[in-house]
Amino acid sequence: xxxxxxxxxxxxxxxxTGWGVIDTDGVxxxxxxxxxxxxxxxxxxxxxLRQLFDGLTEVLAALSPEEAAIEQTFVNRDGAATxxxxxxxxxxxxxxxxxxxxxxxxxPNAVKKTVVGAGHxxxxxxxxxxxxxxxxxxxxxxxxxxxxxxxxxxAHSRAWTKFQESVVRAERAxx
Length: 175
What we know:
single chain, 5 helices, 5 strands
């Protein structure tokens, strides 16, 4: 691929934060790597957040993405769980921000709709479609598959935005 952009997708979670890295040239998607960063469930909250920070920092340093995409938090009935997820999401946003990356955010339903074609689907469907779109990908967890789906969503969003910009430029040039 020429002029490819490397994107990291991040699926935040306190227990396990998934990450997936792809290359895209606007049309083609190329699998680079995926995995997850885990925290010690017996550790203090601060220690667990530090584990996520260190793990994501290593991933970004090793794979050098140029842009990041993160899933937005949904609010569930358990306020304490939502707050902890928000703290993990803060780490997931901080690490690429410290690396100077542009960060895009996508709602869970938008990711599902982009990758599967429906805003409501289960993790098995996401994993299956990620495998179709990125045949070399072998996600070790649902979190890693979700992270790849987030990166794919960003790649498609980028392509659409570039297309819209080219149409506007063409219209301006014609007038």
